[in-house]
Amino acid sequence: xxxxxxxxxxxxxxxxxxxxxxxxxxxxxxxxxxxxxxxxxxxxxxxxxxxxxxxxxxxxxxxxxxxxxxxxxxxxxxxxxxxxxxxxxxxxxxxxxxxxxxxxxxxxxxxxxxxxxxxxxxxxxxxxxxxxxxxxxxxxxxxxxxxxxxxxxxxxxxxxxxxxxxxxxxxxxxxxxxxxxxxxxxxxxxxxxxxxxxxxxxxxxxxxxxxxxxxxxxxxxxxxxxxxxxxxxxxxxxxxxxxxxxxxxxxxxxxxxxxxxxxxxxxxxxxxxxxxxxxxxxxxxxxxxxxxxxxxxxxxxxxxxxxxxxxxxxxxxxxxxxxxxxxxxxxxxxxxxxxxxxxxxxxxxxxxxxxxxxxxxxxxxxxxxxxxxxxxxxxxxxxxxxxxxxxxxxxxxxxxxxxxxxxxxxxxxx
Length: 414
Prior knowledge:
The chain is of the alpha/beta class. The chain has two domains: 2-99 and 256-413, FAD/NAD(P)-binding domain, CATH 3.50.50; 126-246, Rossmann fold (3-Layer(aba) Sandwich). It is built from eleven helices and 21 strands. Strands 1, 2, 12, 13, 14, 15, 20 and 21 form an eight-stranded mixed β-sheet that branches. It has a four-stranded parallel β-sheet with strand order 9-8-10-11, sandwiched between helices. Strands 3-7-4 form a three-stranded antiparallel β-sheet. Helix 1 (12-23) packs parallel to helix 9 (253-268) and helix 1 runs parallel beside helix 11 (396-413). It starts with a strand and ends with a helix.
């Protein structure tokens, strides 16, 4: 099988790159092993929340020039602001409604009810400017009876620390009884499928309407709108008070919806998306990749003019840690990491973990290096890149989307 560009990895970086390329007439295929990080999303996309030295960032556009020389943002040829705009526009073009501004981070509500800074937030969720937006409000925190991935006590406690007054309640719908028989079936995605039925959603809305009198807002788990945002809009329009949807523990209903919308957009543009397959090796000729091979296709090769590695980090096996090294398993790319395993991590779980900065080595065009040699047609995008600590710095989505757009533009230019 032959394509103009073959992308390894079907998450946010891979799909962003593929959509950009297909829009510009570059025939692409994406090979994706399985679920991407979007399935575990808390409903927001971070651009830059903190610098490597711990300095807090309120304005990502102003702070981007202060990242380290090896940070992926430093390799965008001075076009950080341009790619920020393009990334947000790509979401809108794909029908994904987000709110936010790169000139000022806003606050999002986490599954624990705490507030964290971010760049863009799904329109499902509430965008806050500070904890003062919660202070003094009477909030009804409501769960679906039997749903264990939403902890109402944690959420209420966090809101009350911000000065709110909370009450906890639950709703029991007969339509969910079948799921409740087995706790493993009582998951956010399964609940969302049930609530896509208009009559069931209307029943839930009537139940809520009888509970919200006297409250300033109602907080609910984000279990609405798996296929589209229509149930979310209907819910918010039907109630007389603001609805705060709270991200649940994974899986993420809006994250899955975004993944599906990105994939649909890519395929509508003519892209080929192969889910459930894994690229395992590659053929080289000199400093160029000739073909790759996957588990499902055996000896049948995928041939392309260019290849993009967007396989993610440790979570998706884009990087693999060994006792004394970190490797990239598909192409054997050079990986930037420090010697001495003790230097990789901090024993305190919540402290900065150095291993998160490890990743594949690239040149200023994000072409991958192997044994020190730049591979002319092999590029990297997203969290597989070295130089950023996406968790500590709060830049994961930004690194994925901006580097993917940058790589795509390099390929379009030829």
